[in-house]
Amino acid sequence: MGYKALIILNIVLLAVIARLVFKPLSPAPGIRVWEGETWTAAQYGSRYILSIKNHSELASAITSFAKARGITSGSIYGIGAVNSATLRFFDPSTKKYIDKTFDGQMEIANLTGNIAMKDGGDLIHLHVTLGTRDYQALAGHLLAASLSGAGEFVVETIPGIELEKNFDKNIGLNLYNFKK
Q1: Given its phi and psi angles, is residue 55 left (phi above 0), alpha (psi -120 to 50 degrees) or beta?
Q2: What is the pairing mode between strands 137-157 and 121-131?
Q3: Of 112, 114, 116, 162, which is least surrounded by CB within 10 A?
Q4: In this structure, how many other beta carbons lie within 10 angstroms of the beta carbon of residue 54?
Q5: % of the chain residues with pLDDT over 90
């Protein structure tokens, strides 16, 4: 399956899921709209539809949203476009990340991640697949990206719990701590 077909399939799947999960938009009671400096969100129960403003730094905008809404556990997924992204690759032999920045217009074919707490603050963990102009895919842990066009995401919260992550020295990563 070609790269274009994968992007189209991703868009279609997100549209189908959104149609199944969310009721049609209307001024119905219980729907709230929130706005931050770099984002706007509509809340439907424990779910948010999140739009990141053009030219915003993506990871910090998502972190700002989670802090503003008091989200301590959840997941995020979505699509959009960026013109610069710094990806990370974790090398288990050294227990360190290797960072690489890519410039140029790229489609976010998929962004997925989780929201938890670490040391009393929000910890946003994002992975992304980016498509380049020549239909190549880049993927990795997203450190930073500059939005260039749309940034449309769904955040699903887990009400009533605060997921905590702690640094595991043996692995070199922040992992869930379910014992707290």
Answers
A1: left
A2: antiparallel
A3: 162
A4: 14
A5: 76
Q: Which two tokens stand for residue 144?
A: 């930073």
Summarize pLDDT for 68-127 with one digit per residue, the tens. Answer: 999 999 999 999 999 999 999 999 999 999 999 999 999 999 999 999 999 888 899 999
Helix (H) or strand (E) holding 108: strand 96-118
HEC states along 144-164?
A: EEEEEEEEEEEEEECCCCCCE
Residue carrying the six token digits 């199944």: 20
b/e 7-31 (16+ beta carbons within 10 angstroms → b): beebeeebeeeeeeeeeeeeeeeee
- Residues 175 and 156: their CA atoms lie apart, in Å, by 20
